[in-house]
Amino acid sequence: AAEPGTSVVLSGPPLTLALEAIADFTDAKIPQTLGHSRRVAELAAGAARLSGLPGTDAATLATAGYIHDVGRLGVSAGLLARPGPLTPAEWERIRLHPYLTERVFAGSPALAPAARLAATHHERLDGSGYHRGLNAGEQSGPARILAAANAFAALTEERPYRERSDAGVAAKALTKLGRDGQLDPRAVDAVLSAAGETTKQRRSAGVSLSEREIEVLRLLARQNSNKAIARDLGISPKTVEHHISHIFDKTGCTTRTGAALYATHNALL
Which candidate in 186, 188, 234, 246 could, as Cys together with 178 as Cys, close a disulfide (CB 3.0–4.6 Å)? Predict the structure, then answer.
């Protein structure tokens, strides 16, 4: 309230520049992480597009990538740069940084959704990640992509406690995490494809659906009426009806409940 002058509202390219500045400032905390957040944003957005997710998901993932490590500013540089083992108390401080990221942006209606997504970048499908220990049923498709993008980017970068891996070695390590049930294999494949690594690409269940059909499916799964879906998406109820028909044909579902379960099982919500 006490800020002097007129508030400046950013959108489009100026907003991207501001997010990149935030990313660079965050990564400058220790030399080994310079460029990390930009890389995660690029990989995550590219993987979303390859997975056939809506453009809005790709944009949110890019934002989440830029800001995902902001919480590290609340951790001492000495701790982040420690080459040796950490005590349990020190490790707990490291594990808090995704939570801090979410809280930093909680007061911004525009950035809070991306920050909630950003806070999932260390989660694992088997519940072994942090800071919330979410399991597979609690992680969305974008969250799975962000976790894979962050893991691959980190593996290909030097850290105080290890050397960097080349892209081929990192790709094998990421694939193993998918095989072992920690990362989503489809998200892994999409991230590796976005990184230019050759993979045996699995088609995401959502690839056969158009961006608009995924948007309709998400609202349908929340038990919205055709009129409500039309109002939210700015299209006619008749068009919504056509989209639902196509969704049923492509997924093999015959009821709204079946479509909701399909969206849940394939991490499309």
Answer: 188
Q: Which two structure tokens, joined as six digits, stand for 150?
A: 């962050």
Give the alpha-carbon dihedral of 36, 129, 76, 99, to 10 degrees. Answer: 90
- In this predicted model, what pLDDT tens digit does every residue of 160-179 receive, in sequence order? 989 999 999 999 999 999 99
Q: Among all chains, which residue has been given the structure tokens 């990362």?
A: 183
Question: Which amino acid is located at 38 in the chain?
Answer: R
φ/ψ region of 223 (left if φ > 0, alpha if ψ in -120 to 50, else beta) reads: left
| pTM (predicted TM-score) | 0.83
Residues 6+ apart with CB under 8 A from 142: 44, 48, 53, 57, 60, 61, 64, 117
Identity at 189, one-letter amino acid code: D
The CA distance from 52 to 204, in Å, is 8
Taken as a whole, the chain contains a residue count of 269
Helix (H, G, I), strand (E, B) or coil at 158: coil
